Amino acid sequence: MRLSPCFVAAWLACWLVSGQIAPAQNEISVEAVLEETQVAVGITSYLQLIVQGGQPEEIPNVIAAPGLSVGDPSRPPVSNYAHSTVNGVLTVQNKYLYPVIGQAPGTFTIPAIKLRVRGKEVATSPLSIEIVKLSGNRPQFNSSQPYFLTFQASKTEAYVNELIPIELGLYVRGNNSIARPGRPKFENSGKFVIKPFPTTYRLNPEQIDGIPFSNVRFPTQVAALAPGTLSLGPASVETDIAKPGSSLFPKAMMRLSESRTISSNELTFTIKPLPEAGRPPSFSGAVGSFELEVKAHPAELRAGDPLSIDVRVRGNGNLDSLQPPQLPETEGWRVYPVAKVENPGGSDSQTVSYAQVVIPLRKHPSLPPLELAFFDPAAERYVTLRSPAIPLNIIPDPTADPASGHAILNQIGFQGEQLDDILFIHTNSPSWRPLNGSLVTRPSFWLWQLLPFSVLAGLVGGWSLQRWRNWQAERRRRFEMTLEKVRARSSQHLSRAQFYAMVLEYFERWRVKHTQLPAKLTPRSTTALEDMWRAGNSILYAGASDSSEPVSNEEKQEVLSALAELESLAPIA
């Protein structure tokens, strides 16, 4: 029986689609990630709890951690739900955000968090966070300054290559007065390694002497490259400061913010050299406190087969300059270079992983221990970590002994060949057979594949065209606003923020239509427009306290009269 191309194409399409949309049950897991592993006393950081594979039966408001405040007992954590499908596998994630605050300096542990998801009990790994007390010769907060930048460090005395937590604080007077702050830049930073600043920022309200300020924190860590008395800073941040316009004429009338470069104080550090006494031979410059974990697989292999080694180093220190642990004994091993494994998304800044491939050339009872030597600045001594020897079952290579090789050939019934290499080489000519009647070689098969895509492309194109037409119609409708519409809306009960948002929008469209402001305006209308622009900017962008109050009829009439004179001079077509 010969099947028609249409039937075969339809059957294949159904089979492919059914295979793609069949959901797969993703694995249940839970992970806890700290936004910052070092944070100042009294400053709020965040812990993110990521649950994958389902929704937990119960989520706590507070996580018990001695010395820390994790969560808010009066409210549940902020949650976020996300799902995605990759290669037919449905992945479901629930994320929960907990505020973390430490009131005293020290290193604290957030214990494992246990949850039940779809009847299964899962737990996170314990996390370590260091609470530091910032110090430094920074200027005192002065509410008379409209803006300033502070520079603080957890300490000003450290060892070479020791990480020092620092923090920059940008303060601008007013609520929501910081717009688009840039990345901080340092002067005199040639003798320091500065870790990257966070890519996102959070705008925090703060009061100084009863005056509201907007604050953005920039925490990071630095490490000195050489001993001595070293200066770092001043730092500078370029940012846009939201500010109401001070004049209507000429070009400054549309400026709602101004760009400023704000500089900080300078800090001086005393950097001590690493001691020579007790330095291990394998020490390569690592400074901090670390833990070493080594795994190898497979545990059973033949001599000459590759063995994968996974190395994981976790702790507080300059992981970027850490040298991976090496095999102390290489005789009888073929060793390949170590590769650093990038952490996807950088979710854990306290861990670095390495991967290495080695090949045993003969039988070994185990993988030798790997060594990691570092200097612990807290204990002021060198520490050498050694991983335990990992037992291996290595089977000798049969090709190394001709007698054992022929014995294996005799067992499988192969006679008359010489065992000269790992594989037998066939010298006879290959026999090729043409594939007659292959489905993919027929033009009709590909025509049927193009049909559904053509229909889908037509539907998407029609939908996009309709959306574009709707957008054009909406755009024309918005730009056809007249003074009559403004007056009609002004007769409604409006707050000052609603009224000035409407009139400033109308005035902006009028200004775009007429680039040159007419010189025939009366002084009263000019003053009214200036007051309108200044009051609108203050209410909409400077957080004025009276923005929610109703707008008075006198204020409405004064603004509408000025707009009416503009309309009479040059109406919006």
- The rough form would be described as extended
Q: What's the gyration radius in Å?
A: 35 Å
Low-pLDDT segments = 11-24, 245-255, 401-424
The main pleated sheet reads as: 6 strands, mixed
At the first level of CATH, what is the class of the largest domain?
A: Mainly Beta
CATH topology of the largest domain, what is it called?
Immunoglobulin-like
* Residues in helices, as a percent range: 10-25%
Class inferred from helices and paired strands: alpha+beta
How many β-strands, per DSSP?
34
Total DSSP helices? 7
Kindly summarize this structure in a few lines.
This protein is of the alpha+beta class.
Q: Strands, helices and their partners?
A:
Elements: H1 5-21, E1 24-25, E2 29-34, E3 38-40, E4 45-52, E5 68-70, E6 78-86, E7 89-102, E8 106-110, E9 114-117, E10 120-123, E11 127-132, E12 147-153, E13 157-159, E14 164-173, E15 178-179, E16 185-186, E17 192-194, E18 203-208, E19 211-224, E20 228-232, E21 235-242, E22 257-263, E23 267-272, E24 288-297, E25 300-302, E26 307-317, E27 333-335, E28 339-341, E29 351-360, E30 366-367, E31 371-376, E32 381-386, E33 390-391, E34 393-395, H2 402-411, H3 443-479, H4 483-490, H5 496-513, H6 523-541, H7 553-569
Parallel strand pairs: 1-7, 3-11, 13-23, 25-34
Antiparallel strand pairs: 2-4, 4-7, 5-7, 6-7, 8-11, 9-10, 12-14, 14-19, 15-21, 16-21, 17-19, 18-19, 20-23, 21-22, 24-26, 26-29, 27-29, 28-29, 30-33, 31-32
How would you explain this protein's 3D organization?
This protein has about 575 residues and is α+β, with helices and mostly antiparallel strands. About 20% of the residues lie in helices and about 35% in strands. It folds into 4 domains: about 25-130, Immunoglobulin-like (Sandwich), CATH 2.60.40; about 145-270, Immunoglobulin-like, CATH 2.60.40.10; about 290-395, Sandwich (Immunoglobulin-like); about 485-570, no CATH class. It is built from 7 helices and 34 strands. The strands form 10 sheets. Strands 1, 2, 4, 5, 6 and 7 form a 6-stranded mixed β-sheet that branches. Strands 12, 14, 17, 18 and 19 form a 5-stranded antiparallel β-sheet that branches. Helix 1 crosses helix 3 and helix 5 (about 495-515) crosses helix 6 (about 525-540). Residues about 10-25, about 245-255 and about 400-425 have low confidence and may be disordered.
